[in-house]
Amino acid sequence: MDDFGKLEEISKGIRRDVLTMLNKAGSGHSGGSLSVTDILVALYFGGIMKYDPQRPDWEDRDRLVLSKGHACPALYAVLAEAGFFDKQLLWTLRQLGSPLQGHPDSKKLPGIEASTGSLGNGISQAVGMSLAAKVLHKRYNVFCIIGDGEMQEGLVYEALMAAAHYKLSNLTVIVDNNGLQIDGQCRDVMNIYPIKEKFEAFNFRTYEISGHSYKNLIDTLTTAKRNVVSPTAIIARTVKGMGVSFMSNRVEYHGVAPSDTELAKALEELR
Amino acid sequence: MEKKATREAYGKALVEIGKDKRVVVLDADLSGSTKSAEFKKTYPDRFFNIGIAESNMVDIAAGMALSGLKPYASSFAVFITGRAFEPVRQSICYQNLHVVLCGSHSGISVGEDGGSHQSVADIALMRSLPNMKVVVPADYNEAFAVVSATMDMEGPVYIRTSRAKSPLITNKPSFEIGKAEVLKKGSDATLIACGMMSYIALEAAKLLKKDNINVEVINSPSVKPLDEDTIYNSAKKTQRVFTFEEHSIIGGLGSAVCEFLSENLPVYTIKTGLEDVFGESGTKDDLFCKFGFTKESFAKKIKDKLYG
After folding, report:
1. pLDDT digit string, tens, across residues B86-138
2. What is the distance between the alpha carbons of residues A251 and A243, in angstroms, rounded to a whole number?
3. Which among A159, A208, A171, A186 has a CA at the least distance from the CA of A254?
4. Inter-chain touch A106–B95, beta carbons under 8 Å
């Protein structure tokens, strides 16, 4: 099995965990968790990010901010797989007292870099982390995943402007471009396109790739890390509900957990 | 009597605490007005102008705090608490980050800029957020002590400063969060004030003295947490409480005092502030006259309520 094959195996396991967690929780965001899974797997298991699960507060670690916080089931499953906490915790998602909150909480769970969920605030905090690296003379990288629907929040553009102004070459913004949001297609709800030109206008070095191709993801993320001139944007074209045929590209699964029957069917597909 | 603005203390104190290399200062294109520009002069590498983008400034401060820095972010009170309310809630308070927010040009004493720039609800907004501490210094000396003291505090802090100069009435070298100060002892009523209103309350007390009314005056810069002991002891003695603030009577110092007293010592309490209205353009003095923020107006109100 080649390296990408291994990542694909990991991602299947992550998707199975995500759906099982959501089914047990009885609520949560299936579609966006599945679309972002390969991006997260590439970052954490594709040799891109520098981290130590035994030392989640290690000063020189690379940071991942999931600005589209509602996709946290995928991040939780990835962090458990990476060894940040016991995998059994996954099955407590959204329950009273669980560190796995409905949206990521940096105070409760190791590996969560910023509390997010209120859209737009994550990317702006990521800019702060990138700027802090300059003050502290640190060489860490900051990766921030935003949703495409999130690009309707004005704060996103304030963050992009500041990132370019301060030449934050240690920052990479990844757009999980699955084309859908709660109320329908992004282009129908409030058109966010063109995306690439927007980032370019803000002086980001911008790439448009498939968010499900490990070769594309790892090549581009590696290039992004080497960029010392400007921040980088990666528009990752993804499929909402990726990996599960009956959830793929279906807006109904944005904020819905799979039923027992749906879970069984999905796990069958993800074997 | 020497007069200085609390915003000037913010700038001076930042330079002092800036000796600690973890201190970073952010502003949103108002550094000359908020006085954070003082810090920029001394430590240009640790000053960040975020442009006219208060929400972004607050979130960036949050990201910096998460990375081990001690951020101080300032803008006009109306913008940093209003425009940036969501980042303050989600990123600063929800994560209980040690970020110090300074809202300058608070209240109506901004004057000529008018109602759009006058903050009448910032204390209410900040006080409502879990983890947030709210401090309204009475004068330059106290503001300087407050900013210095934030270095040893934990979690989020909101400091409310003013554009207008006001007389120096305090001289304590240090500030302790949650502590009020009895500026004048008395037994007929308790006056509790913050910000510039503490000076006016003291002056009103002098006027009342001429009528043989002897009031106690408490300067309560720490609106949250409130100095409950000092307020309780005074209210128990006088049984009559008056609050004064350059803010709406809804949600500010007066509300905080009422919330505490109603559960612990239900005594007659009268709030003075803006009566659920916005401000308008005018000189500070004209506005203070119009909205009843003068010693004569305070004294008359107290007399009327006590003996009217």
Report:
1. 999 999 999 999 999 999 999 999 999 999 999 999 999 999 999 999 999 99
2. 15
3. A186
4. yes
Q: β-strand B215-219 against B181-184: which pairing, if any?
A: antiparallel
Domain count, chain A: 1
Per the structure, the complete domain to which residue A149 belongs is given by 3-269
Q: Looking at residue A61, which CATH number applies to its domain?
A: 3.40.50.970
Our answer to whether residue B259 is catalytic in this structure is: no
> How far apart are the C-alpha atoms of B282 and B97, rounded to whole Å?
38
Q: Percent of chain B beyond pLDDT 90? A: 98
Cis, bond preceding B167 (omega within 30 deg of 0): no
Give the span between the Cα atoms of B180 and B173, in whole angstroms.
14
- Facing residue for A107 by CB, picked from B68, B69, B95: B95
Nearest-neighbour CA in chain A from B75: distance (Å): 16
Q: For A143-164, what is each residue's pLDDT tens digit?
A: 999 999 999 999 999 999 999 9
Helices (H) and strands (E) in chain B, counts: 13, 14
pLDDT tens by residue, A162-171: 999 999 999 9
Fold of B3-167: Rossmann fold (3.40.50)
Does the B181-307 domain belong in CATH 3.40.50.920?
A: yes
Does A155 lie at the interface with B, CB-CB under 8 angstroms? yes
